[in-house]
Task: structure prediction
Amino acid sequence: MPHRPDPAELQTVLDDIATRMAGEAERGEVASYIPELARVPLNRFGMAVAPLDGPPIIAGDAEVPFSIQSISKVFALVAALGHVGASLWRRVGREPSGDPFNSIVQLEAERGKPRNPFINPGAIVVSDVILENQPDETTQHPVLDLCQRLADAPDIAVDEDVFASEVATGDRNRALAYFMLAEGNIRGDVTEVTESYFRQCSIEMSCLQLATATRFLATEGEGPDAEIAGVTPERVRRLNALMMTCGCYDASGEVAFRIGLPCKSGVGGGLVAIVPGVGAIAAWSPGLDKKGNSVLAIKAIEELAHRLNWSVF
Ligand code: GLN
Result:
């Protein structure tokens, strides 16, 4: 059974982990292929837990906003499923890719149907679906809107400098989108679709906000958070299954092995993990390993999950 610590015990564990992460020498490297991300100091570390039955607990830089990047793919998937339901799976698969998140090789072999919604081409199809179903540009970005409502934080915003940096250097993502257009799996305008995708990746949130915004995934699909997300119990189970198998790109197996929880990472250095029935965890440290996952966020959540017996296995 997962341990359910009281707030004081959880605070002690988080503070202890944050202190030890501050002393870690091996921190990976900050992403530089999106130049604006390379400006974030390597020495940052934050962590937050949003339990289902108590106040959020934070440690380190847990209230510092950072670029959520691919973590936005979870919120985007929730929005797209809300629009088109299971018909989404005709255009996006549900298998781990085993390839880097921006790889084009598999996409060609599989005729433009991305393996899953958490690699870039899958998320670009998801953006296309959202635009098709919610084209009104007078409203704010639907993924931003969902993040604000789930975190109960209307000040969450897009970092316009990161957005501009992604647009300027996004040729590989545009190539993925054009390839899928050629295969009939993108219906909108490639520039518009990719810009919508870049915009959601450029949303800035803190660990505290991310843990709060993903807490609905720890419920059984009921309650106020799940209602905001518009999810059913079955959808929550399936989102968790996808996070477990595909949430950390081609390191998803390794992360499941080490942490044993549904996770989603981003190249901004964020990592969220869901403890079913208990709550959501978010950790952030901008240094990445070779596969684009945060070295210290993985380490910290691994340690937390071990200490509190939170692995689902
Ligand atoms: N915006 C990034 C990209 O498209 C997101 C990638 C990531 O976090 N893995 O390359």
Remarks:
- The pocket of glutamine is lined by residues 69-70, 101-102, 120, 166, 173, 201, 266-267, 292 (CB under 6 Å).
- The first strand starts at residue 29 and ends at 30.
- The mean pLDDT is 96.
- The chain has two domains: 7-68+204-308, 70-201.
